[in-house]
Amino acid sequence: MTQIKQYEEILGLVYWDMRTGAPRKGIGLRSEAVGALSSETFKLSTSEEMGELLRALNEPGELAKLGEIDRRLVEETAKEYERNRKIPPDMHREYVVLTSQAESAWEEAKEKNDFPGFVPYLEKIIAFNRKFIELWGAKATPYDTLLDMYEPGLTTEELDRLFGELRARLVPLAERIANSPNKPDTSFLAGTFDKDAQNKFSKHILNEMGYDFEAGRLDESAHPFATGLNKNDVRITTNYLPDDLTFALFGTIHEGGHALYEQNIREELAETTLCTGTSMGIHESQSRLWENTVGRSKAFWDRYLPDLKTYFPGQLDEVSAEEFYRGINVVEPSLIRIKADELTYNLHIMIRYEIEKMLFNEQLDPRDLPEVWNRKYEEALGVTPANDAEGVLQDVHWAGGAFGYFPSYSLGNMYAAQMMDVARRAIPDLDEQIGAGRLLPLKEWLTEQVYQYGKLQRPSEIIERVSEQPLQSSYLCDYLENKYREIYRLE
Amino acid sequence: MTQIKQYEEILGLVYWDMRTGAPRKGIGLRSEAVGALSSETFKLSTSEEMGELLRALNEPGELAKLGEIDRRLVEETAKEYERNRKIPPDMHREYVVLTSQAESAWEEAKEKNDFPGFVPYLEKIIAFNRKFIELWGAKATPYDTLLDMYEPGLTTEELDRLFGELRARLVPLAERIANSPNKPDTSFLAGTFDKDAQNKFSKHILNEMGYDFEAGRLDESAHPFATGLNKNDVRITTNYLPDDLTFALFGTIHEGGHALYEQNIREELAETTLCTGTSMGIHESQSRLWENTVGRSKAFWDRYLPDLKTYFPGQLDEVSAEEFYRGINVVEPSLIRIKADELTYNLHIMIRYEIEKMLFNEQLDPRDLPEVWNRKYEEALGVTPANDAEGVLQDVHWAGGAFGYFPSYSLGNMYAAQMMDVARRAIPDLDEQIGAGRLLPLKEWLTEQVYQYGKLQRPSEIIERVSEQPLQSSYLCDYLENKYREIYRLE
Q1: Which of A6, A436, B190, B286, CA to CA, is 20 to 30 A from A107?
Q2: How distant is the Cα of B217 from the closest Cα of chain A, in angstroms?
Q3: Could you give phi then psi for residue A236, rounded to 5 degrees?
Q4: In this predicted model, what pLDDT tens digit does every residue of B109-161 receive, in sequence order?
Q5: Are B333 and B214 part of one and the same domain?
Q6: How far B53 CA lies from chain A's nearest CA (Å)?
Q7: What is the ipTM of this complex?
Q8: C-alpha distances in angstroms, B81 versus A468, B68, B92?
């Protein structure tokens, strides 16, 4: 298990490098090397020896002899083993090489706005995933099998219900906002913002959040991400846009939230495969909690707007914290998910969710994706991409084969709202704390409640322990309604 | 063999990362992961299966059936196999983890000028190497065994002779220079030179040399290095000193020379273990050829000084190419090897060579290294380090266990001078070409003569094919005498 963990750490570093600046021409051979090492890791996790050890540990009475960590390790390992044993090793290797090359192809296709150039990769990746579903065995629907990879136990049935509830309250809210005469002023967000100053302010905020730069680093990449190589090397990236003051900043806080999770897993899990977030949904709850509940709050900007002004002298002198807060929370249907406001963001996710279900449950032809994409954006958000780079090609996920991942973002929003409801009772003066630049009490509370456990508890166990109930959509809806009622002065 | 090559590529990337900015706290676990993967690579190279394959291929008549590349691959692999089989796998792994940690320890010790803090690592590394020598079998002397690792076939006997010849001509030359009244003016080299401009000019020169930035990248590290991960990903680092105009620049050209070698190995070797330089001596011949013969030549600065002036406006306006050329070639005994002039540089190497021989052939106690080091610097160069950071701790090599490597640098100088003698006959107007900024004809000639072969030919085969004779010290001595006679206007 340690060897598997170590190989995954090294593979994580190779992927980080590929995304942050590996020379283009070297990618071909690098992908082959990644394939070789992934393949070896895969073999370790599916070896006869592993099977025998797992069988022996699952003999009656054996598991009871183990401590909590080892028991959970055996359980997780057995699950991986069962799943991986069904995939022929050559198929796995081919798939790793393919997705590794597809990421570069996606980057090029996005740059050149060339969806047809990316289709062959997408077709192959989808075909592989269809085959995987067949080998693993389809659950209620084929897409359910994919969902379970990222949020163990989650079904399309439950997700349809949760997303239905969200839609029922958020769409009317969006309409009331659209009809409100009290639009926030966003004029001060326009301009050119020095990249270097953006970088320095991002670092400042990460420090304030308690991100440990001796156990991580901040770089640039086309698509921001966080990666925990080991718990003392958790790297994040962001993307500085010269004409956008807040894009890199909120990206950094988002990835910083992921990183706080990974950096604060308890030490005794460090060398085990449990040393990572328990699910993508819980992971996104932490990134989106920091990005939105903290980073887009009034209290936060009461404290940090004066700091921000010193990084961009003369550019924001006239803006008050109230105006800034309202400006960064403007609700506006838009094309790019990672630039979306907190409310319409969930509609972006639902579009991807619906499309993914169509791909796997209804055999949608990938060549038709741009058309379907554009129609759904028009229907749900009233906007149409001018080209595929700002449409179907905007996200890297499908290039990496991450079908079933997108719902995690909205799950994260729901988990986060539900947890924050508890946090506010545990830290009654939380807003005053944030307003005084004391972000660490929240970080400590989250460490105690969530981070330290890594994968030691399942997502459902975590949310139920923290909030004494299963995941609900109502907390997120309440939170958004309250927030926007005030900003847009709704009745 | 492909798998071994691929794992080495990935390990190379991990080392690159460790040296260019991996977070400090993650190094411990990373070193363990490196140990695990190195160990696996080591096992592949020493497996029973490998042994059987090599035996089968060495049956009478079998090798003759193979092509040139495969024959050479078998030969090199058999040599590695024989050597590695003698090292117990656990011992190898322990050593890899040790040297990986020792590099960080060295960095810290150098920063804090704390040699005693580094001694425990050094003692262990030396003990390991003594054990390796015992297992491999000592040649004429124990140190001969280490030499052979970096320059196959080289002996202390031959090196004593070559270094003796060098000393016999270079020490008197250094004395004549010291007594010359015609000292170059170096005042224009003092000042503060913007780091960013240094970086940009370094990149400009690398482009001029034909370094392919789509198959490589330039970063910063405490100790400059080049690493060929694969032939399309050859990375170099340099170190910008704000008060030194030329340190980073010549470092970049030096590492750029290494990189040209690796980037221009013929395509058909790309996926084999022959896709690297044939020896450290030949590798250093290419870095030092570009750094010195090209980068410190009059013709080069005739062309590039005007460029340099545009990167540092107002700072070098008064300097002529002739003055610049003389200034950067000032001969001055100094403490730091990588800052030394072309002449005294060889004396630095001889000091390390003598100390390494003492460590392995005479059991010198590592704790006495600073004393021995300082005495030898006083004797050979007339200078004494003020502290160990600028003395015995200045180089990373010993932290990585690279005993026997240093001689490569002077061998490189000798190889380079001997090759340049041929190059000047092949390209009679070479100086005019360089003076016109046409560096590519030289690069093409070196590609044809040296680079393309990778490890397909042995060092002795290369120098004898190129120059029709074995390695001589006289070409380097002639070159240096001619160069300094003119600069110092010696009789």
Answers
A1: A6
A2: 7
A3: -130, 155
A4: 999 999 999 999 999 999 999 999 999 998 999 999 999 999 999 999 999 99
A5: yes
A6: 21
A7: 0.91
A8: 61, 20, 14
